[in-house]
Amino acid sequence: MHEWDFAATLADMDFLLLGLWNTMRVFALALLFGIPLGLCIALGRMSRIPVLSQVSSLVIEFFRTTPPLVQLFWFFFALPILISVQMTPFVASVITFSIQSSAFFAEIFRGGINSIDKGQWEAAKAIGMSRRDSLRRIILPQAVKRMIPAFAERSIELLKTTTLISTVSYADLMFQANELASKTFRPLEVYTVVAVMYFFLILVFSQLTILLEYRLAKSGEGTLR
Amino acid sequence: MTPVVEIRNLHKSFGDLEVLRGIDLDVMQGEAVVLLGSSGSGKSTLLRCINFMEEPTDGRVRINGDLVGTERGGRMQYREAELCRLRTRVGMVFQHFNLFPHMTTLENVMEGQVIVLGRSKEEAKSKAMQQLSRVGLEDKAPEYPARLSGGQKQRVAIARALAMDPEVMLFDEVTSALDPELVGEVLKTMRQLAEEGMTMVCVTHEIGFAYHVANKVCFLHEGRILEQGEPQKILKSPDSTRVSEFLEGHSLFKLPD
């Protein structure tokens, strides 16, 4: 029977908290870049210009069909050779997860925008609004509300996928856990603590999205009742 | 006198399907024109060609004398920016209201004024309140559309179009999606607009409305205007048997006088 002893793990909590902070940094930046990029790709895919639509579809399909670990290795090892830039694990991670999640967000945006009744476009058009203004003022504000559950789901998936960045030696929570486990010879305790940390991080995040959903549902047009 | 809407030789095809086959129509200042016809006759398409929700395949549309589009090599070409400007001059109300559900009634009526016409918020608000009281709904200004009845929604949609100060209003079967008991309030609003001298073109199945409010009734059949004239003439003693058949279908179960 294993004798649980959290003393060594808890003594190095600041080491794990640093890892948690780094995980959150990559996650936040991937969302910050990935969401606007996803919107751009979605608009590209829905564009009436054939080239733009095809290129966007290709980007979406490519990043949805290749494993994130392969993408990460490619950006970390291959890209610096091709364009001779200095690549740090942090930069490679942010690039990989921004683009990778943007491909998924693009499909969520597209689904959200397409779910809005055609009559809304027509009404905006009939008062003289351009397509751009219609999208910005009429369609997106409604679409975003419907997208929140899918968006939250995808973000949680993204947060969990960031554990892969430990493989390029970026000091995220998973990497720090591995280090601490081999240092303390207490892997059970370390990974248990780390699991609890991920649990709370994601719990807080998903509660925030539910809060956002309630805030946006005020006009009675939302996914929550 | 220049007609507010002048349509010449208008054609519209969707792929192989020719919906409009040469329409000529003048709508004069202050006139209320009703388009009648069975489904598929092209009346809604004609209406939607007036504000270019649909681009005609051929023909000319003039709004208060201004030709829409530019002619190049015998064909008309339309620029999006020009059509957006045109649509501010031609208001449209839809069968399914299409209010913006994420905005209050007031914001619905302000939106086009602020975003398209560039009016200040204060100006747009006072104009919006003026139009809402015109349709009798100023007390609903802070409500979201979800809280309104169908008839109220449609009257807000009318106010939203009126707030752009259009030169002509188009009504596309605006009472067809309403409960029968709510039809009256919308028709009353439309009648009031007509009496105030608003130029309007309506697609409707309300023969009574056509009879009492319209100055002119056009009967469309297979993409052409089969018969047009004063409602008393068209609705009481039409020349064409097609029109008589259509009217009989509409009055099969009329209450006895």
- Helix and strand composition category of chain A: mainly alpha
State which percent range the strand residues of chain B make up: 25-35%
Structural class of chain B: alpha/beta
CATH evolutionary superfamily of one domain in chain B: P-loop containing nucleotide triphosphate hydrolases
What's the total number of strands of chain A?
A: 0
**Total number of helices of chain A:** 9
Distance between the termini of chain A: 49 Å
The portion of residues assigned to helices of chain B is 25-40%
User: What is the string of helix and strand elements of chain A?
Assistant: HHHHHHHHH
Average pLDDT level of chain B: 93
Overall geometry of chain B comes to globular
User: If interface size is counted as residues with C-beta under 8 Å from the partner's C-beta, which chains form the largest one?
Assistant: A-B, 22 and 31 residues
Shape of chain A: flat
Number of alpha- plus pi-helical segments of chain B: 9
